[in-house]
Amino acid sequence: MTNWLGLPQIASAHGADIDRIIVWVHLLMFIMFVGWTAFFLYMLVRFRRRRHPTAEYAGLRTHATRWVEWGVVVAELVLLFGYSIPLWSERVDDFPPEDQATEVVVTGEQFAWSSHYAGNDGIFGRSKPELIDVNTNPMGLDRSDPHAKDDVVTVNQLHLPANRPVIVRLRSKDVIHSFMLNEFRVKQDAVPGLTIPVWFVPTVTTAEMRQRTGNPKYEYEISCAQLCGIGHSKMRGFVTVHPAAEFDAWLKQESTNAAAQSSGDTFWQ
User: Which pLDDT belongs to residue 60?
Assistant: First the structure.
């Protein structure tokens, strides 16, 4: 379905539901476009000057257009209450249990995405705004906090497991950004002063997508869908989806490295 519509590949469990709504909405728009265009052309011919040299202010007497308008209303209500609201409700109300999901805090800033993972202890460490340094500590982690010593931070690189619920908690340091993952059908604003959760289930690993597309260099991208400043177009990150076991091994190794470096006096980024 995505190929003939020109949509990106689907790489999440709910992606097909999103595309289905897109198809129905555009089908309704197409029917309305064809119908109203045909009606407009009919009116041009029906009330042409040669046939009606004198203006007839009563116009066309028919109830057909009223029935068409009610049909459009019914179709829109079905799309809204039958498809859109249930899908939206699932996204905002039916969050998976935290102990069964991978949690990551993603923070947008001009012009980068930083990702923060809890380390091997499974607890997010404390962060402080005054400790933020763009080059050495983008998340402002307080490494004196025992829970922060093994936390993992990446910049413009988001690692996720396949076939496991992922909860992304979005934040922003400066202005409104918009976290958009095309293939995963995810888009959510990151608003300063708020932590906004969004969840999805990646279903296609990066390696599988490269094989599917025939592109050995294919990368999932994080893009900012909200104009956020002069460097907006360059605010790109990349997502690597691993098999679950491979992701667990990656996170364990990165957390171990972070803890080892934090145990000394040298700060680890």
Answer: 65
